[in-house]
Amino acid sequence: MKQFLLSKGFLHFLIAISILPFQQSLPEIVKLAFAPYVFYLVFTKNPIFIPALIAYVTPGTTIAFAVLISTFVITLFSVPVLKKYGLGKTLFFSLLPLPFLLYLTYQRVFELGEGLIGTLVPLDYYLGLFPFFYGVLCYKKFGNYSLWGILLALFILPLFSTFQIIDFSVRVFWLSYPVFLTIFLSSIYLIIRNKRIDKGVFTLSVLFLMIHFSPKFTVLFSGIVGLLVIYLKASNRQFSLSILTGWKVVVLFLVVVFLIISNTDTAINSLNAQNISYDERSYYESWETFKEKIYFKSFGDRAPIWAGAWDMLKEETEYFFFPPLEPLKYSMQTLSGGTIEDNELPIHNLLLELIRNFGFLIGVSIFVAFMFYLVLGPGKFMFKSNNGHIALFFLAAGTLGSAIVGSLVGQYPLMGTFSIGMISISGVFYGFNFSTAFESNSE
């Protein structure tokens, strides 16, 4: 920790959090003036600046777009290097939607008369892919001080929301919580087994959970998935290596998402028949109430939205190959029997949200790219690496938990206010995997 606190990375992080409370109220010209600065932070390709970048994107202003665009630009400038890292085909696949989205942007600006910034808003889901390549370019400089910088950012930034210093959501909390929950419970297990732990990292997790203990289902379930990943790593099960580190897991997840969203009507009818009452304060009382909460969160809280979006997508078949000019609107039936027409709210499912914004073909391709980044990065690191600081494995497991649950019941993994953290970390893990494979082949 001391190395990071004495570094330039901590200085830039302090600058970022010092303007965090009033970044949204800054004049647009001032926000635009930050563009060269954040380009500098990205183009240095130093992971010690990732904490500052996470802080800068948190309010979701023009500065966040500048960060995402800078990762896109550095990716284009680094194609030869990325090919050497074995990412030629991955990068090509990630760039396939670009011509269609550029044409879409042109149409929105010159045919619909939208402002450039408003036009770019839906594109942050696509631009959210490119921090992965930025992370790959950073991995060689990633050390314990960079790790501590990221952990401190994950610890400090949610404080601004918890203590009401700001009035907007700090979405990095959805990564912070599963990471620190994984660290805490895994460390407790190691202590029971008389194994060594990192006391500093463990203390940070204890403080975080004491301050932010949350009954919110999404973050808790993300942490549970992270712990499951740790269990699979510790048990060294061979099926984990074959399924969770290849294309099979992407296909499996797509099938699971499809089965869930295509059966939402049945789930809604079942919930209405049961007439279950869901109290956020009571679902820990017994295993039965907890199971009911899981069922409600998966099929009740989100099901009306998914059902409406699914019906809309089945009707709008003309957008199979080409994206719509504007994100599609949908109608939904509420559990109380009402109807909401022309809904513009997010769908709370990453795959459906991508299809709604970009059409079926492009939406699915962006989602598949996102899933492959997770497999190639933290997935392979967890199940094929045995080297590195133990907190790296906790960070990888928490990242996977947050990504899996977040993409199923939300869309935040690729949002501009979140992706720079999760996706760039995934890129760093890919770099570690590539370095290990390269060294093994060189021996």
UniProtKB/TrEMBL annotation:
Cite the entry's keywords alphabetically: Membrane, Transmembrane, Transmembrane helix
Which segments of the protein form a coiled coil according to its record? none
TM spans (from-to)? 49-79, 91-110, 116-138, 145-166, 172-192, 204-232, 238-261, 358-376, 388-405, 412-432
What protein name applies here? O-antigen ligase-like membrane protein
Q: Which organism is it from?
A: Cecembia calidifontis
